[in-house]
Amino acid sequence: MSLLVVGLSHRSAPVTVLERAALTEDAKAKLLQDTLAAEPATEAAVLGTCNRIELYAEVDKFHAGVAELSTLLSLHSGVGLDELTEHLYVHYEDRAVHHLFSVACGLDSMVVGEGQILGQIKDALSLGQELHTAGRGLNDLFQRALRVGKRAHSETGIDKAGQSLVTFGLDRLTTEIGQLPGKRALVVGAGSMSSLAATTLSRSGVADLVVANRTLERAERLAAQLGGRAVPFADVSRELVRADVVVSCTGATGLVLDRDAVAAVLPERAPDAAPLGLLDLAMPRDVDGAVHDLPGVHLVDIEDLAAASADAPMAADVDAVRRIVSSEVEAFGAALRAERITPTVVALRTMAADVVSAELARLDGRLPDLDDRSRAEVTQTVRRVVDKLLHAPTVRAKQLAGEPGGAGYADALRELFDLDPQAVAAVSRADTVGPNDPNRGTS
């Protein structure tokens, strides 16, 4: 099986396409289930953020895998396949690993170095584990990606190369509405991005922090943590009258704030009120782009951030992170290649043990009067000889298999020792069933 990723991001598609292709949590779950039901895929995970949708899968056929994954992305995103295809990118095997590690380090983010992507990768893995679509291969890959991302942030200054989308967006907004301390803030939504926005606003010194969410209980929990107050979702319009800055990031499929709703509250705002700043971090968007035309209103959305971040300066630490990614990809690939020969080595040692047992049984038949001490010494000697004969070639085979192009060494062992392919396959199947696998112990 080989790793394949098919996806689109802010680098390959305009925001309008990303917006339409955004997946709800239910759509992600159905996509994973359908991917696993498709013939080329045995494992699957989906990474969906505000600026990327990527489907990872373990496949046994490259072309069939690309075709199937592309079709499924089109089906569940609602974007026609012909339109979607021109924005899709495909990475395979080591290039797919390199891509995910780069994403985990923030190198592929809209704002280079942002750390929120690590939480999103963790969420993608958790969903795959929950639905049992992420097996050992993707579990190992995503866990390694998380470690690589953490290493990049701890060993380099990649954090200085860019900020989270929240911080970057607020910085863009304050150039229009002034600094945040003392301002009244409204956060619409209570998910991970909204929580980050509320925390950032609280730390910046806003005078009043209000959280609105369709589930009031979630808004109350978030507001309580930050010393703010929670309001029902229906009160958003009323809070707009008082707010100086609004950050919206919900999972709604339609607009949360359309032009008419924003325009309606403007006459009610105090005559000396500061300009109303709106930061829309949702995908698809929460705020109608038409509010750009309203006087006294400044909107920053994902599309604005994409354009601004394209010109953001790159820190010198980016090169250091790229070196980390390259070395980690090489190490991961070597370990994976070496691991793939393990079932062959195990099958070889099992065959050798069977031969030893058969010959010792034959010896018992020919020398029935051999005393126990002598029999034990003969048994130990025969086993030691076999172990010594197999040690060097199996260790060396594992070392060579870890190098690029080393996959053929497993084939060589199977051919030279005439190993039963079914025996090797049986070891492979046993090796892929973990202690928490729902199929463990079943036929």
Instruction: State the distance separating the first and last CA atoms.
Output: 22 Å
Gross geometry: elongated
Could you give the order of strands across the largest sheet?
A: 7-6-5-8-9-10
Uncertain regions spanning at least 5 consecutive residues: 432-443
> Which structural category do the helix and sheet elements fall into?
alpha/beta
If you average the pLDDT, what whole number results? 87
Total DSSP E strands: 10
Q: Determine Rg (CA atoms, Å).
A: 29 Å
H/E series, N to C? EHHEEHHEHHHHHEHEHEHEHEEHHHHHH
The number of helical elements comes to 19
Percent range of helical residues: 55-70%
Keywords for this entry:
443 residues, 4-stranded antiparallel sheet, 56% helix, 19 helices, disordered C terminus, 6-stranded parallel sheet, alpha/beta
